[in-house]
UniProtKB/TrEMBL annotation:
Name of the featured protein: B12-binding domain-containing protein
InterPro entries reported for this sequence: Cobalamin-bd, Cobalamin-bd_sf
UniProt-recorded Gene Ontology molecular function terms: cobalamin binding; metal ion binding
Domain B12-binding: from-to ranges: 17-153
Gene3D superfamilies xref list: Cobalamin-binding domain (3.40.50.280)
One Pfam family hit: B12-binding
Matches recorded under CDD domains: B12-binding_like
Region (Disordered): 1-24
Length: 156
């Protein structure tokens, strides 16, 4: 699977498998969601760096610089994901070197269902938002379609 880093114009310093950084938000202590995503992404051929739960925004930014991922996958299920996510993506997009890094978020992002937060989170800077109730297939499809996105942008 190729991830859309070239489409975004950023070239990570590492070669080989695409590298995906998996993280939760600052307030969220749940961990099995992160383990699930790590296993799924590894099964799909990625090199995964799972930095765990309760990650402060500035630590996430530092870890992005340290690991130079092709994509960041944020997961939250505690009901604060939309609030935490909006704050963290605003902080990350304010960093010029990370402004085009592909970053997605998913899980149980609010207490009223995350579909109400999708557009807001996209507007704040996420590349995609995945609501728990939709199941995992939209995420799989997103990852599988990424090479086409690269081709489309390259020929545009
Ligand atoms: C185990 C658990 C805990 C454990 C966590 C232990 C641990 N080490 O992880 C403990 C007891 C610590 C805990 C604490 C809390 N919990 Co809790 N917890 C659960 C529980 C029972 C299971 C979660 C789990 O492990 N699921 C297994 C994993 C594999 O699945 P998952 O987390 O659902 O993730 C799936 C999807 O959401 C999706 N997904 C997740 N992230 C992403 C990201 C992307 C990009 C994509 C594509 C998909 C995706 O993929 C996963 C697989 O399908 C759920 C209820 C439930 N049945 O889901 C509540 C639940 C998540 N907890 C909840 C709450 C409220 C809390 C607390 C706030 C309770 C409290 N008042 O203290 C605290 C939160 C503390 C904090 N700071 O975050 C609520 C969240 C409500 C909401 N979002 O609307 C839930 C849903 C219970 C409920 N029905 O109210 N919890």
């Amino acid at each position: 699977m190729a991830l859309p880093s070239t489409a975004k114009g950023s070239h990570p310093a590492h070669a080989g498998k695409p590298r995906v950084l998996v993280s939760s938000t600052s307030s969220d202590s749940h961990t099995w969601n992160l383990v699930f995503l790590q296993l799924l992404l590894e099964e799909m051929g990625n090199d995964v760096v799972n930095i765990g739960s309760c990650v402060p925004d500035d630590l996430l930014i530092a870890e992005c610089r340290r690991h130079r991922p092709d994509m960041v996958v944020i997961s939250s299920v505690n009901g604060h994901g939309a609030l935490d996510g909006e704050r963290l993506i605003t902080a990350l997009r304010a960093e010029p070197d990370l402004s085009r890094l592909p970053v997605v978020i998913g899980g149980k992002l609010g207490t009223r269902g995350s579909s109400v937060f999708g557009q807001r989170l996209m507007d704040a800077g996420f590349d995609a938002v995945f609501e728990d109730s939709a199941g995992i297939e939209p995420f799989r499809s997103y990852l599988e379609l990424a090479p086409h996105a690269v081709e489309l942008e390259a020929t545009a």
